[in-house]
């Protein structure tokens, strides 16, 4: 049995991808929390010279970058997450998952996370939220047409959800009006996108997705970051 160590921080949605993959695969691992509010210590920079979480240690090998880590886990431990590419048909399924992950990461994850919350004006915030809604309608929803309830007609979570769920969870929790972090119209508008919302409901019902997430702590962390950002803007 390989020894797995995950260098992580539970606030980080990229690191959260690895937690979801490990939970879905039922793998035991050691969790090492890397404090993100202070500079990385030299020992961690030896593990990941980029200084980012997550990083995965597999026996004595280090793997970095969340998408590479989840792909490695799915390949090393064949499962329901993704078929092994043994035929053009299975290769095609993997290609479709890759397209979804690439599209979700470039059009939704990177844009929404942080940049909307810390936008400098209400107009900028609204424009970014509208751009996200438009991208979900035009680029993401069409890829979810045959979700049943998960990607590509799968009854179980796939690598597509593994790489998207942590962001979906943050949109739907931090987007609640009471936290004042995201425009109030964002969630009601997203809920109107039927095929997307059906998929979101299935994703957010999974224990493997929600297990390590502390909604209140995440909201408070962002509220603090936002207050600091606004104070700096006034200087
Ligand atoms: N592309 C990286 C992004 C990882 C990332 O941005 N992690 C953040 C935390 S969410 C980080 O480690 N930031 C270092 C810092 O804040 O100093 C991945 O997918 O693994």
Automatic annotation (TrEMBL):
Pfam families: GST_N
GO cellular component, one term: cytoplasm
InterPro entries in the cross-refs: Glutathione-S-Trfase_C-like, Glutathione-S-Trfase_C_sf, Glutathione_S-Trfase, Glutathione_S-Trfase_N, GST_Omega/HSP26, Thioredoxin-like_sf
CDD domains xref list: GST_N_family (cd00570)
Top-level taxonomic group: Eukaryota
Stored Gene3D superfamilies: 1.20.1050.10, Glutaredoxin
Domain GST C-terminal: 90-226
GST N-terminal domain span: 2-81
Membrane-spanning intervals of the chain: none
Protein's name according to its UniProt entry: Thioredoxin-like protein
Organism: Sphaerosporella brunnea
């Amino acid at each position: 049995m390989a020894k797995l160590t995950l260098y992580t921080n539970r606030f980080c949605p990229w690191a959260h991808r690895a937690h979801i993959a490990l939970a879905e695969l039922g793998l035991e691992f050691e969790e090492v929390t890397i404090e993100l509010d202070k500079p990385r210590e030299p020992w961690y920079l030896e593990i990941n010279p980029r200084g980012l979480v997550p990083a995965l240690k597999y026996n004595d090998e280090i793997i970095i970058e969340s998408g590479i880590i989840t792909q490695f886990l799915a390949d090393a431990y064949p499962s329901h997450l993704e078929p092994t590419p043994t035929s053009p048909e299975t290769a095609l399924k993997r290609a479709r998952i890759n397209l979804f992950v690439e599209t979700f990461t470039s059009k939704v994850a990177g844009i929404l996370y942080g940049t909307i919350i810390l936008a400098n004006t209400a107009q900028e915030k609204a424009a970014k939220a509208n751009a996200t809604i438009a991208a979900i309608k035009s680029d993401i929803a069409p890829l979810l047409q045959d979700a049943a309830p998960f990607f590509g007609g799968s009854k179980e979570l796939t690598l597509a959800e593994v790489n998207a769920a942590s962001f979906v969870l943050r949109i739907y929790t931090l987007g609640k009006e009471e936290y004042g972090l995201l425009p109030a119209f964002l969630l009601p508008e997203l809920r109107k996108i039927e095929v997307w919302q059906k998929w979101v409901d299935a994703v957010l019902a999974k224990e493997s997705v929600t297990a390590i997430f502390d909604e209140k702590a995440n909201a408070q962390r962002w509220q603090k970051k936002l207050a600091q950002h606004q104070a700096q803007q006034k200087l």
